[in-house]
Amino acid sequence: MSTNGRNDYTAVNLGNEDSPQTKNGNDPKIQSLQEHVDEVSNIMQQNIDKIMQRGSNLDHLEDRSEILSSNANEFRIGARRVSRKMWLQNMKMKIIIASIIIAIIIIIIVVARS
């Protein structure tokens, strides 16, 4: 405390508290501080809006990824089914071709012995 009974260690010296400017709210330092507070408040509001938008985007992205995962599982199951079907069809074709070749060889052997 100083000798006049007031604190001299205030963070911001706003000037003489008894001046008419302070009573009317026209002090330039107060107006500057108020403008700064308003600016910071607006920036914070914009940041909150952006965070809310990102949250919404993340929710949408999560939904889409779940759908994609489900579709991938369905595709994998279908691909396995088609792969097995094609393998079976391929094996049938090989058996038919082998049977025809064996039948031709048997016919040739039978004709050659006659």
UniProtKB/TrEMBL annotation:
Comp. bias intervals (Polar residues): 16-31
Top-level taxon of the source organism: Eukaryota
Region annotated Disordered, chain positions: 1-31
Subcellular location, record wording: Endomembrane system
Transmembrane segments: 93-112
Statement: the UniProt record of this protein carries the keyword Transmembrane helix: yes
Protein's membrane topology: Single-pass type IV membrane protein
UniProt domain V-SNARE coiled-coil homology: residue ranges: 29-89
Database matches in InterPro entries: Synaptobrevin-like, Synaptobrevin/VAMP, V_SNARE_CC
The entry's keywords: Coiled coil, Membrane, Protein transport, Transmembrane, Transmembrane helix, Transport
GO BP terms, alphabetized: protein transport; vesicle-mediated transport
A GO cellular component annotation in the UniProt record: cytoplasm
UniProt key word Ion transport: no
Similarity remark: Belongs to the synaptobrevin family.
Full protein name: V-SNARE coiled-coil homology domain-containing protein
